[in-house]
Amino acid sequence: MANTEIVTPDPSNDKSSRFFLVSWTNNLLKTKFKNVRQMGSGACHCQIMDCVVPGSVDMTKVKFDAQSEDEYRHNFSLLHDAFSSNGITKTLPVEELIKGDFKSSFEVLKWFKCFYTENVKSTEYDPVKARNSHDITPIVKAPQSGECNLTFSFFD
């Protein structure tokens, strides 16, 4: 682990849109997310942490294809350990992230973008190599209340 002091950011002045954050994450991690809510497995958060502080997360233990709440919690536990060992006191709303809550997902990703910007020391990180060529599987959730799921049929 690095002995460099970690800067914990204040993202309150960051005006990044959800579209920018998804694009930023996809570019950084070489992923194909379409929505911030798809990142609720914690795998991308673990990888951003590993990118900022190389070796802080044992990437061989991250469940990149996680699709159950227990697997998501496992990933967030790895992230919590990395935070603790690096003196980061940020509390993440894990249950909200797991459930795909938009506001929580957006705010946490915004924090991670600021965290990356404030602390990254090298741009030589290879995210695909770091995760041993595994894809990070987006979480699949049924639409939450307030969302519309329409199916259209067209007849000749």
- Quote the beta fraction: under 5%
CATH H-level superfamily: Calponin-like domain
Count of discrete alpha- or pi-helical segments spanning 4 or more residues: 6
* Helical content class: 40-55%
How can the largest sheet be summarized?
A: none
Report on this structure.
It is a single chain. With 156 residues, this protein is mainly alpha-helical. The chain has one domain: Calponin-like domain (Actin-binding Protein, T-fimbrin, domain 1, Orthogonal Bundle), CATH 1.10.418.10. Helices cover 42% and strands 0% of the residues. The chain is built from 6 helices and no strands. Helix 1 packs across helix 5 (102-119), helix 2 (43-52) runs parallel beside helix 3 (69-85) and helix 2 (43-52) packs parallel to helix 5. The protein is globular, with a radius of gyration of 16 Å. The relative contact order is 0.22. Mean pLDDT is 86; it is low at 142-156. Residues 15-117 form the Calponin-homology (CH) domain. It comes from Amphiprion percula (Orange clownfish). This is Calponin-homology (CH) domain-containing protein. Pfam families: CH. It is found in: Cytoplasm, Cytoskeleton.
Summarize the structure.
Keywords: Cell cycle, Cell division, Cytoplasm, Cytoskeleton, Microtubule, Mitosis. The chain has 156 residues and is mainly α.
